[in-house]
């Protein structure tokens, strides 16, 4: 019965959703006007295949098999990144990025708020040490909720994007997301990026308010607003790998223990 189910899965045009190839689980996303197969390994080690509509499942399985080596190398890379990220300590002198600049943490006995940026030092009140991670994330979210809407406004105007509001959230492996009501969500961790890369994240989500998928039309919308978006996307890959992302460290570790 199980063997038959596997055989059935391999027949006919590919369907969106999970596809198992050996011990890999591939998340299939079907995009009507896509040319070929694009494989990506996300920060949390999820594997996505973006494929054209009507592609034969057997063909996709063959592509995944031919790129197994690359996929496993990428998974190793993601594990290493996660290991690099995990070593933040909440002690005086530890470095944290905010809008692309590095700030040293300083533990203080008294302060009006649990976390604050004062004279170039990131202050953490000592009585909050047992929940330091949550307090720092709350600080990034608070900063983002003020900074991002003002930053997004000129982009939204230029792109005529019907953006209703911007919220900073925990978004797992994604930098941003949006909904049909014109709401844009940005990952709190994006506030660690240089402003030029936060702009890329914003423009990407604002473009989704016009076009939901990653079709060539979507990238044209992005390119019209931000002609150098490809360079910024590459920088985001590199810079993003060094950011403090405690949540995705956990998900990569869970995957490793499966
Ligand atoms: Zn997107």
Q: What attributes characterize this protein structure?
A:
alpha/beta; Zincin-like; 2 domains; four-stranded mixed β-sheet; 43% helix; disordered N terminus; disordered C terminus; binds zinc ion
Give me the secondary-structure topology:
Layout: H1 2-9, E1 17-21, E2 24-31, E3 38-41, E4 47-52, H2 57-66, H3 68-85, E5 95-98, E6 101-108, E7 115-118, E8 121-125, H4 132-159, E9 165-169, E10 176-178, E11 183-187, H5 195-208, H6 216-225, H7 229-240, H8 246-256
Parallel strand pairs: 2-4, 6-8, 9-11
Antiparallel strand pairs: 1-2, 3-4, 5-6, 7-8, 10-11
Helix pairs in contact: 3-8, 4-5, 5-6
The protein binds zinc ion.
Describe the overall structure:
The protein is an alpha/beta fold. The protein folds into 2 domains: 2-85, no CATH class; 95-256, 2-Layer Sandwich (Zincin-like). Helix content is 43%, strand content 22%. The chain has 8 helices and 11 strands. It has helices at 2-9, 57-66, 68-85, 132-159, 195-208, 216-225, 229-240, 246-256, and strands spanning 17-21, 24-31, 38-41, 47-52, 95-98, 101-108, 115-118, 121-125, 165-169, 176-178, 183-187. The strands form 3 sheets. It has a 4-stranded mixed beta sheet with strand order 1-2-4-3. It has a 4-stranded mixed beta sheet with strand order 5-6-8-7. The chain has a 3-stranded mixed beta sheet with strand order 9-11-10. Strand 1 and strand 2 (24-31) form a beta hairpin. The site of zinc ion has 3 residues, from helix 5.
